[in-house]
Structures are given as C-alpha cells and as structure tokens.
Amino acid sequence: MRILRWIGITAAVLLGIPIAALAVVVMLGVPISLDAFRANIEAVAGEALGRVVEIEGSLTLLPALRPTLEVRGLRIANPSGWDSENFLRLHRAHGTVDLLPLLSREISIHEIAIEGVDVRLETREDGISNWVFEPQASEASTDPTGGPSYGFLRLGELAIRSLKIDFRDAESSETVTFEVVTASGSVGRDERLELSARGHARGQAFEVSVAGGSLA
To answer: What pLDDT shows up at residue 171?
Structure first.
C-alpha cells in the first residue's frame, strides 16, 4: 500500500509540474513564439487566397483568458502579370479572442488592431481586378465530413492606424491614393454595425461614419 501511495504522489507531482507551469505562463502573459509554424501558416493562408503569403516578421501568441495573436511583417503577393509585386503589406496587427464562445462553436473577437497597411488595387485593360481571389481547391475543403463549423458572433473593436490604398485603373492610367489616418468600428450578429474613419484623398480631408444593421 505504501508503494502505491508513493506511486500516486509521484504521478501527481509529475502531472502537476507542467500544469502549474502552464498556469504561470497564462497568468504572467509570457509570450510564445510561433515562428516554428510560420511555413505551415503561410501555406494554409496561401491556399485559401490563391496567392503567395509571407510572414516576414515575428508571429507571437500571448496566452491569457483572452489570448492574443500578433503578426509583424505580412505580405500578400499579386499574381504574375501585374504591375505591382504586392497586393498588400502589413507592418503589425494583433487580435484578441474570447475563449468561452469557442466552446459553443462561435467566434467572438474581442479586438483587432492593425497598424501600417499598404494596399494596391488594380484593374487591367481586360477588366480583371487583383482583389478577386481564386482559392485553391483542397481535399479538406471539399470533405463534407470535416470538422465542426464555427459561426461568427461579434467583433468587439476594430482599430486601424495608417492605412494607404492605391487604386490604379489601367484603362485610364490614373492612380488615386486614399490615406486613412485612423479607423474604428464594431459589428456583431446581434449588434449594429458601427464604422468611422478619417483621412485624406486628392488633397482633401475626409471624415466618414457608417451605422447599419446587425449580421443576424
């Protein structure tokens, strides 16, 4: 009986150490590098968009009751045959997710913050636009017996700083640049859409606010 008791104590200690370490990591908010998964994430994102996707900076997870994922240096390429090599370049972004709704297969994003985005929108003379994506088909995406689907619940807060959009029309050879200094918004399945932005275009300052219905 004494041997069984010591076996039980030893097993409890061995199991308790990693659990306690994980609890400390969560409580202290120790960042975890996900750079080892960079290639896999780039491949999945590239397949979903039908474009080359590269994470040129760091990819970090901050574990907490609301875990945060941060990416630095994201690039989405244009397909071959376009004047510009890149469709989008992102300096930094992070998103925070609410964990409890995931248990009900619902996605509730507490916050998304984006800083430093350059987007190049183009149309060719044949009318084709570079913002039309062609995802690559995969066996996982066509399998009707795949994993459980998740529904979107809400985006609590969206904050964007320094967004630049260049729009070039090949037929007119004209390029128009919109620079958004700040933008913010929120939307939910049972919440009204709220969006506001300010910036300038063609030398004129603008400020817009949009309010609409929910996603229900």
So the answer is: 82
Beta carbons within 8 Å of 97's beta carbon, 6+ residues apart: 66, 67, 68, 69, 107, 108, 109, 110
Residue found under tokens 């350059």: 118
pLDDT for 167 equals: 94
| Residues 6+ away with beta carbon under 8 Å from 192 | 211, 212, 213, 214
CB 138 within 8 Å of CB 146 = no
Q: Domain extents for the chain? A: 1-30, 32-212
Nearest to 205 by CA among 174, 178, 172: 178
pLDDT for 170: 83
Q: Which two tokens stand for residue 21?
A: 């370490």
Question: Per the structure block, which two tokens stand in for 16?
Answer: 């308790």
Name all contacts of 45-51 with Cβ < 8 Å and 24+ positions apart: 47/135, 47/136, 47/138, 48/135, 48/136, 49/76, 49/133, 49/135, 50/79, 50/133, 50/134, 50/135, 50/136, 51/76, 51/77, 51/78, 51/79, 51/87, 51/133
Task: Report the pLDDT value the prediction gives residue 16, as an integer from 0 to 100.
Answer: 45
DSSP bridge pairs for 124: none
pLDDT the model gives residue 39: 94
User: Which three-class secondary structure state does DSSP give residue 135?
Assistant: coil
Instruction: Find out whether 61 and 67 touch, Cβ atoms under 8 Å.
Output: yes
| Residue ranges of the chain whose pLDDT lies below 70 | 1-29, 137-148, 215-216
